[in-house]
Amino acid sequence: MGTTSGDHLTAAAPWTVLASSARGAAHDASGLPNQDAHASLAVEGVPAVVVAVADGHGHFRHFRSGRGAELAVAVACRCAAEQGQPLAALGSGAEREAYARSTLVPAIVEAWLDAVAADWAESPFTRDEEAVRVVATDDPVIAYGATLLVAVLAEGWVLLAQIGDGDVVALRADGTVEVPVPGDPTLDGHYTTSLCQESAIGSFRLAAIDQVATPLLALLVATDGYGNAQASDPWPPAVGADIVSMLRAHGGVWVGDQLGAWVERCASKEGSGDDTTVVLVVRRP
User: Fold this and answer.
1) Looking at residue 8, what is its pLDDT?
2) Distances (CA, A) of 192 to 55, 145, 164, 203, 224
3) CATH number for the domain that contains residue 161
4) Does 5 fall in a domain?
5) Digit-coded pLDDT (tens) for 8-45
6) Domain count, the chain
7) pLDDT tens-digit series, residues 70-119
8) Whole-angstrom Cα distance, residue 114 to residue 150?
9) How far is CA 24 from CA 33, 35, 71, 277, in A?
10) Between the CA of residue 262 and those of 100, 170, 174, 258, what are the distances in Å?
11) Is the dihedral of CA 193, 198, 199, 200 positive or negative?
12) What pLDDT score does 258 carry?
């Protein structure tokens, strides 16, 4: 199946991909669009799926960040799917992390920069966009700034790559909940690393999950609008346990039917008020 930004998706065995996105109340009030994006793609020749979530920066310096997020999830899914077979051939999580660092991440960043350059060449900044540029000497890529989370899920392993904020939460079949991607000490609630920075390749954080001993029940990938709406701190253990309980009690179809309402609530003024996107990848029974 191709990349998509629609809700409630179904992907390749052994995984089902459920997804929903909502415009934040703050953007609704200001007339800005939803600047999040998400996509999924089956890996040809390997029983695996790639999912990607991106969050365009709300700052006015990044006035095409919604488009930057759309380009990010498309190229990330394509690049990761192309590397699916080499990743599957590796024998350990450490080897997959090293391969992602040396090959996959640079490929994603280069493809995103190429896509941004092509988009700008086809649609140069309008007069109104030129008027809001904070720094006239900014490279056009700054306008497209976005964060990115990518996950490749196979039968026996998962590879994760992230730049910027947002969350990845692993839900094990035994009920345990993990946050596998290392934190970034430079994230302070106002500043985030970004695809538009020259240091983008080195700013990616990576993780590999072994599913042989204790397989995942699900993987949650979300923009920061979701985590910022949660009452618990830290929120992943409580929220993850709730999702595991609902998946066991009601199944993935029921959870997928509820996901849109959960995301809308998080994006509301009673929640974070921010654009909110959640992709929940569930192991098929």
Assistant:
1) 44
2) 11, 10, 5, 10, 11
3) 3.60.40.10
4) no
5) 444 456 899 999 999 999 888 887 889 999 999 999 88
6) 1
7) 999 999 999 999 999 999 999 999 999 999 999 999 999 999 999 999 99
8) 19
9) 9, 9, 20, 10
10) 33, 19, 24, 6
11) positive
12) 96
Q: For the chain, first and last CA: distance in Å?
A: 21
C-beta neighbour count of 215 within 10 angstroms: 16
Give the domain extent around 57: 15-283
Over range 206-211, report the average pLDDT.
94
Question: Quick check: is 183 in a domain?
Answer: yes
* Domain annotation covers residue 2: no
Tokens of 132: 């809001």
- pLDDT band for position 137 (cuts 50, 70, 90): low
pLDDT band at residue 285 using 50, 70 and 90 as cut-offs: confident
Average pLDDT over all residues of the chain: 90
Which pair of structure tokens corresponds to residue 24? 């934040």
Contact assessment for residue 72 and residue 149, using Cβ atoms and an 8 Å cutoff? no
**Nearest-CA neighbor of 283 among 43, 51, 14?**
14
CB atoms within 10 A of CB 123: 11
Q: Are strands 36-42 and 157-163 parallel, antiparallel or unpaired?
A: unpaired
Looking at the predicted structure, is the pLDDT value of residue 60 above 90?
Answer: no
Tell me the CB-side half-sphere exposure of residue 207, using CA atoms within 13 A.
19
Instruction: Kindly give the pairing relationship between strand 157-163 and strand 205-210.
Output: antiparallel
214 belongs to a structural domain:
yes
